[in-house]
Design brief:
alpha/beta; Rossmann fold; 8-stranded mixed beta sheet
Length: about 325
């Protein structure tokens, strides 16, 4: 699919949707007498705009499954807006409503769910290695009140794509979110993928915007062959900051699909399709509302992935995208 620079409009809509969707999720609804509305809580640790987009996809997917909003269901949304310290309190708000089912995005929110409740069904999305993190007993039989969609390990694929566009790639800088336990797991995958391709990495653990600025200063002087932004890098800052830096430095770079990085000028964006994940989360919610137990619903892996290339950015940094890479793109920005 090819789209032009009108995607700036997407970013504007993306930002404005945050307030609108969050307000809508808290608005009172008219309920017919004698009907109990099922309350679906949704909590994400990422920036508010992305969480609002996910919440709207979840709501629309439930409506597509036959639920009537205000009569059958209500979606209550909470966003930590990249401040992961807020997640436990926000989850407790959803518990107190009370919620009939809670959907979470990201490892921190899933871990908060594990700590907060053993009774309310929880559907997690993008939780890294859920067995290793103690969220479920096994992928096939979760065994508790949590199930959902595991995070995809896209780090090695990010390294592969950088190598494909920079054949002489020997050293890359990696930015990763040190606030997120799942990001540390993803970093290990990136290191493994880099070793397989004989690529050395310099990893920068980022907690906040100040550390990000310091890391970019170091990268500017060290002159790596590429820049990789690890999955779950949803620290609050201007979404264009990193891509503008990489363009100015003529540095090939790749993001994951946590935010619309490519639309903001990023060269490459690779990862699981967020909308597809939320659609699957709605299916889990539907099954649970119809009587299924999370303990018996196998954890799924993402099945739909995005490879988004920004050819305008490639031209600005003087990079020719090989036809073999271009052929793998699900979306091209020109």
């Amino acid at each position: 699919m090819t789209r032009g620079l009108s995607r700036r409009g997407v970013l504007r809509a993306f930002a404005s949707l945050s307030a609108a969707a969050l307000v809508q999720s808290c608005a009172p609804t008219a309920v017919p007498n004698g009907v109990r509305v099922k309350r679906i809580g949704y909590l994400g640790g990422g920036v508010a705009a992305q969480i609002a987009t996910n919440a709207e996809t979840l709501r629309q997917s439930l409506v597509a499954l036959g639920y009537v909003e205000g009569r059958d269901i209500r979606v209550d949304t909470r966003a930590a807006d990249a401040d992961l310290s807020r997640i436990p309190a926000l989850f407790e708000e959803l518990v107190a409503l009370p919620s009939d089912v809670i959907v979470t995005t990201g490892s921190p929110a899933a871990l908060a769910a594990r700590q907060a409740t053993t009774t309310i069904p929880v559907v997690f999305v993008r939780a890294s290695t859920p067995v290793r993190q103690g969220l479920v007993a096994s992928l096939a039989r979760p065994g508790g009140n949590l199930t959902g969609i595991s995070a995809a390990s896209v780090g090695p694929k990010q390294v592969e794509f950088l190598k494909a566009v920079v054949p002489n790639l020997k050293r890359i800088s990696v930015l990763w979110n040190a606030n997120n336990p799942g990001a540390a797991i993803q970093l290990g995958d990136i290191e493994e993928g880099a070793r397989a391709l004989d690529v050395r990495i310099d990893a920068f653990a980022i907690h906040d915007a100040q550390e990000l600025s310091q890391a970019l200063e170091k990268i500017a002087t060290s002159l790596p062959d590429g820049l990789l932004i690890a999955p779950a890098f949803n620290i609050a800052f201007d979404v264009k900051l990193i891509s503008n830096f990489a363009i100015d430095a003529k540095l090939p770079h790749v993001f994951s699909s946590d935010l619309p990085w490519a639309a903001a000028g990023g060269l490459m964006e690779i990862g699981a399709n967020s909308a597809a994940e939320m659609q699957r989360a709605a299916v889990f919610v539907d099954k649970i509302l119809r009587g299924a137990r999370p303990a018996d619903l196998p954890v799924e892996l993402p099945t739909k992935f995005d490879v988004i290339l920004n050819l305008t950015t490639a031209e600005r940094i003087g990079l020719a995208i090989p036809p073999a890479v271009l052929a793998q793109a699900t979306e091209v920005i020109r």
